[in-house]
Batch of 3 targets.
Target 1
Amino acid sequence: MDIREFVLAKAKEAKEGARSLARASSKQKNLALLRMAEALQKRSKELIRENAKDIAYAEKKGLSKAMLDRLSLNDKRVREMARGLVEVAALPDPVGEVLKMWQRPNGMTVGKMRVPIGVIGIIYESRPNVTADATSLCLKAGNSVVLRGGSEAIHSNRAIVKILRDVAKAEGLHEGAVTFIDIPDREAVMELLKLEGIVDLIIPRGGEGLIRAVSENSRIPVLKHYKGVCHVFVDRDADLAMAEDICFNAKVQRPGTCNAMETMLVDKKIAKSFLPAMAARFRKSGVVIKGCAETRKLVKNAVAAKDEDYYNEYLDLVLNVKVVKDIDEAMDHIARYSSAHSDAIVTKDYGKGMRFLREVDSSAVLINASTRLNDGYQFGLGAEIGISTDKIHARGPMGLEELTCTKFIVLGSGQLRE
Amino acid sequence: MDIREFVLAKAKEAKEGARSLARASSKQKNLALLRMAEALQKRSKELIRENAKDIAYAEKKGLSKAMLDRLSLNDKRVREMARGLVEVAALPDPVGEVLKMWQRPNGMTVGKMRVPIGVIGIIYESRPNVTADATSLCLKAGNSVVLRGGSEAIHSNRAIVKILRDVAKAEGLHEGAVTFIDIPDREAVMELLKLEGIVDLIIPRGGEGLIRAVSENSRIPVLKHYKGVCHVFVDRDADLAMAEDICFNAKVQRPGTCNAMETMLVDKKIAKSFLPAMAARFRKSGVVIKGCAETRKLVKNAVAAKDEDYYNEYLDLVLNVKVVKDIDEAMDHIARYSSAHSDAIVTKDYGKGMRFLREVDSSAVLINASTRLNDGYQFGLGAEIGISTDKIHARGPMGLEELTCTKFIVLGSGQLRE
């Protein structure tokens, strides 16, 4: 089999699927999603049986327990997958919304209408639930998908895709709405990334290595979800009890996530009254503190932070702490070391809050709230396909709207160019 | 000199410039643009003297008359360049606009704020006015530029950039707001395209060859302005006099532009009453018609259109004409051959108008109006940096808003993630 031809055929099928989805009504798309949810539950045994093949192979290959856990499907997980589809069906359809409309002096009306992007390539790693999750969001926004999951989950993904395609067809959509590259060869990904003009967008979901490899080799626009080196700055005018709660939540509530705090910046003026108690609370939860010289004077057991530590996404119970002169030094530090994901200030001072809001350039800038809140569900977007660290097209949590583009529409009555 | 180091230093300078621009008020940016306009006019002689060096070299190299014309500056062109800057200063500042803001159940307020993109690389060909035009739009939207003009205009561009930088500095902005890669080596462009993380967006302005080369080699997102294979479909329910005016305007008013019509689709039912008179009017203006078999029965002198003709952007007084069975065949043709730039229907039928509007997937879809109207000025955007044929980030005419991105802002009162 010629891999290039194979991938091209899949993408062309997805293009047909996209055209059928672009024409589908919200009702038709929602019905398909609900039927897909039913079918996944009804055919749960089939899914778990196929998943067992992946698990057996992974065990033989000696994959880690954590990997095996991420890979495995059971009744509960299938139920959750199905519930995800039902939730997406309940969200408002972004397609067809006219964002604004205005009149021109020559009498024509011009508007901007939200439309699907077209064909979206999803490249992901081991978790098979991504197959249903990502597909449901793309479909709801009128896009077809070309799925490329991790080779270790190939039987599970193939089974999920079969169910989704069966339903799509039964509901009068083109089967190409859901396409899957079901060969394990790495070359297939490389071929997919060349299909500019057929595939409109690539979303890689996985670790930094995967995202970099995809983005360096793609001729198609890529929406990236890079790391989060997130900061909380405790200003001299902060409510210190609130600051303590926010910093604790930002670091400890779930340290392995991209919106967890990695560096806490503390205003010199309140360092003495704030840091020792804060550090004691962190210590109780097992947080290791890497501090600047000033920090180490106030926090016993803090180890010395090196410059490169400030670039680090620990994803763990480790925290950099730095004492800064004022808000300017805090914002300079953020401008230099932040990955521009989520950065927060705690302050009671209106002016400093507004400056921080305006001048810090991150996907989410928060006043008096935990960085952990930068999330599609928390922000009320309904669902998210990831948190974009890109500045182009979408930034921050990506919901359904971010899976659309716009076109200009003109309602004329014979207007010509003079 | 190490080219890599040289380009990297320029980009880093631009990054500093971007930070200073992001903090600048609208007043400060507008004042800088007005002073730049004054300075260009005041130092017009200096510009024309430097331009003469480029012209002399281009003549020696034997460049075409058209090329020499595009390259040359005179008092009038400098005045126009300056007026462009004054017009951009008068446009509303997109930065800081809060697109929407909403309350979450936990009491925090979440909003989406428009912010600059950062550093924009502009890669362009011979016309030196692009240097001032593109810079003014980027600056107004709070972005710094890394300019890379055609080597044949290097003296002119260097002189323009010097003036713009002098003013930027005098007005309290960082000089890096306007940076220019003033070495002719092609390698410099390749190095620029690798600077992911420093340069945020690349906009190539020029022919298809330039755009393809940039997009294939760039690790940075590229906004593309590809060709326009634009259609007008004359429906059986069209006002035929209006249809004639629209088709004539779309083809003849300025055939060398990307939004000019290249293929006219005519409903079979009105072909006999519409085509002969329309063709006669085209013939008077020297339009060569390439027609399908049906067309050739009705239009004498029409030559046979081949399948590949329908993909062609003639940019000239040549037109494909095809008779179609109905709106479905017309939309199928458009889905297959259109470059998704500008496509129009002429009809009095409400339902068909609405179907065309919804189902045709192009940057502008028009009812009863000429494709030539797909333009930033015509649409009322004030100015445009080009017409994007991309679906990601911006589609259609790109004005100031399209040169920004958004960030989420959170106004909290101690909210934590549960």
Target 2
Amino acid sequence: MTTADSLFSDSVPIAVDAMGGDHGPVETVAGAVQAARGGARVLLAGNPDLVEAELDRHDVRGLDVRVVPSRGVVGEQERPVRAFAAKPDASILVATRLVKEGEARAVVSMGSTGASIAAATMLLGTFNGIERGALGGPIIGCAPRTVVIDLGTSVDARPRQLADFAALGTVMARVILEVENPRVAVLSVGAEEGKGNRLVKETTAILKASGLNFVGNLEASDLPLGGAEVVVCDGFVGNVMIKLTEALGAALARDVRERLGRQGEELAERIYDLTNRIEAYGGGPLLGVRGAVIVGHGRSRAASIAKAIHTARMMVERRFVEKAEAEVARLRAAIGTESA
Amino acid sequence: MTTADSLFSDSVPIAVDAMGGDHGPVETVAGAVQAARGGARVLLAGNPDLVEAELDRHDVRGLDVRVVPSRGVVGEQERPVRAFAAKPDASILVATRLVKEGEARAVVSMGSTGASIAAATMLLGTFNGIERGALGGPIIGCAPRTVVIDLGTSVDARPRQLADFAALGTVMARVILEVENPRVAVLSVGAEEGKGNRLVKETTAILKASGLNFVGNLEASDLPLGGAEVVVCDGFVGNVMIKLTEALGAALARDVRERLGRQGEELAERIYDLTNRIEAYGGGPLLGVRGAVIVGHGRSRAASIAKAIHTARMMVERRFVEKAEAEVARLRAAIGTESA
């Protein structure tokens, strides 16, 4: 047990969707074992035969890793609600139900993002006035303490939703990234007030009255420079940004490899790592739901999955969900309405 | 005169806003001289004393470079229309007027983008049914034949505007980038039809009836892979993408320099160049206006400005504006309406 890990009390385990992701259950089980070696207690929701077979490949003596049987997996291309009806004991549902029933204190999944969000929304519920969870986090390694939110759960977001993102991002920056007084900016096409689209202008008016540390517009050109700790945007724009960042980094890393060969390997890896943060960190919290949920990157391998479990433990230990719900309630009071 | 340049007939010169950009008139004049050595005829609109002084620093014997006096410059932060009223002979107005009056066949400016667009819209006019010019072009060196449009002139764009962008981008890909049958895609958050925001869905319905080579949605992750030759998006999103790409490339290039020192210089330059295309090419055409207009990057230096002048000559020689206007008219007929 490392010093950092000894901070966790771990009275209740973390549930992991062992079947989710591009490399489940091989990498999810390996990641869970790694996390357990760091002191985590893990419940693996999955096909018992497959998961036990993977566990057999590791030395798990003395580790608290148990299997909870599930049947079926929700694929990336499936519509979650329809899939849930057909597979009521799918791994993501079993894992999320463990949290609902108090058997686990957080759920971690590398599987379908849509399914993770739908399961959390349905089984755990959202904060008062919030329709659906938001995804946010640092997307560029050069700005490791800048939370970009929303990364794709709400396209066609309304100004009040962006205000919610600002509150949720503020709590994430404060609690997870340990920034004392996070600066909140709205992503726009110019730094001056008044530059932007309708959404930016209407959001600006709300954020000014929000009691948050609102600093105005931020251009995408200032994003890698860490111009603010919370940058809010519509989920369409955030999703485009994270996918562009990831793909651009991957393309540049490929280019470095092609030109420098093995000599360029370390540099290529660094470029990839700086631009593929969610993959590196395994995933980020789903914000706005009544439970600790980590939505991971499908491509994640064992080390990243172990990091995601670590983040989940940290979220619980620091009472992230409670603080976020309180902050959203405070925001609602400040901007003078109870609902979106 | 190079072989490529000898393709141009150059009966009428190109107008250059000599005062615009971060480095005008030093670099604009140097760029014009370079272009003239390649066979271009150039009219430099600017403060005669300053421009003549710069010209004196070059050997211009036998070159067709002349000065057309202007008074004042429109700055990046000024509101164009107000600035035009105060400075009726500002360099961008003088340069654009030369095109209107048939003294020049194209205008090139590295100055305020807003002022270039406003001057072109006001003096040259836009195509039937188009309210304002659009900016588009390749933004990532890994996908050199992919035109992303719009890059920022129209935030809050409507579906019909995106259809116009598709037609304009198609002509740009065909005429400037020499792609025979450009694939047109709409930028979205998922590759499957039905994924996206309202704008994407409504644009999809129009593009299906457009007669263009429409291939559906394209995710930002496929952008560096050249998944289509024309990618349409709202100007807010396009502006975010180009600024993020430029800044990310600059940050990664900086990182390479810091880690590898002089050894990394060539690689750092390559990364910067792959991600800062508009700066490398000096600028791109303003699409949808009745005249050949190149809107440049403020940071451009002489070599890029010479390239921008070269692009302007190519636009004229290949009858770009006429072809674009015809394509937009054809689109309007296909989608069954005359106006936006």
Target 3
Amino acid sequence: MKLYDYSAAPNPRKVRIFLAEKGLDYDLVQVDMAKGEHKSPEFLKKNPSGKVPVLELDDGRFLSESIAICRYLEAVYPEPNLFGKDAYELGHIEMRNRVMETELWPQIGVSWVNGPIVAKMGIYKQIPEAKEVSDVNVNNYYERLDKEFAHSEYVAGVRFTIADITLITAIDFARTSVGLKPDESLTNLWRWHALVSSRDSVDEITAPKK
Amino acid sequence: MKLYDYSAAPNPRKVRIFLAEKGLDYDLVQVDMAKGEHKSPEFLKKNPSGKVPVLELDDGRFLSESIAICRYLEAVYPEPNLFGKDAYELGHIEMRNRVMETELWPQIGVSWVNGPIVAKMGIYKQIPEAKEVSDVNVNNYYERLDKEFAHSEYVAGVRFTIADITLITAIDFARTSVGLKPDESLTNLWRWHALVSSRDSVDEITAPKK
């Protein structure tokens, strides 16, 4: 297996954590997004959407979208289970993962796209007013998460799952690249962050620098 | 089973189509979003995010997030298969579904939130500049879909899957509620639309009124 990666990007990190949890070996290929390599004709043959991560299987087929790659890996390598063992758990973990994806990620995305790093690239029309709204939304969401973690050890309950992988990559990207660090008063959220960050799969090998 | 629904909303429609494909009976409970019933204390106990759809199981447990509900139903009622039969197909269908969700849906969402219907509600700060960008993005995406449907019968290949359910609900919502109808010149996209709309599960029972 070969993973097309860009180490600073949050979505490939999800797959790196997932592969580490499964204890799998693979080749890592850096796609330099800063140089636009993800939009090259050669790369677009691997993923027409021009994004990383992309997984190349040993038979030459490709899969993109981080969670889709993880879902494939879960089917081939079922242990340790990260998506759910029975019908209800499959639904519940997907629900919790999607709540993180749909309620937090897009707000971080708006702040990122309208923030200073992307502004310098000059590829997107900047809407500072949108960033003002999304910054507030992200911080409000951190407060909601803090309340939830008062009653729940992990995002989907009592064990580490794909939903924790989605949230740790979102928060680590937001705090290191978008200037949206959760307030120190949110002690339940930081308790969860320390718990998840202590896993070998989530440590400095896959974590953003800082 | 009981489905908490709002007939005009696109996400509950996904689950109604899915239930119809599986041939399942269930009770339908309307949650009047126009009256704010989805934010009532009683409903927030069913789904703390205050959204429909919500599925209530016969044992009293709840699941929300349309695709998570569908994933649960697929595990309990495997036929007809709508998420994939082997590891690669599970990954491929999830990939195609997520491409529709992440590349098209958020753009429709920005146009909806900053459009005339939501503006009248007075609950979100309006950013007309954001809608100008998202309207263009949606129409560009329709053109990309038209090119893809020149070579692919369905969203994920040769058969109807969850990815088609995601796309038909997105496009029907965009064209009937957001003023974003695909141009008539996009004949491949309209060929797909007619094919999918001819299914009993997608017909006037679940389709938005025009």
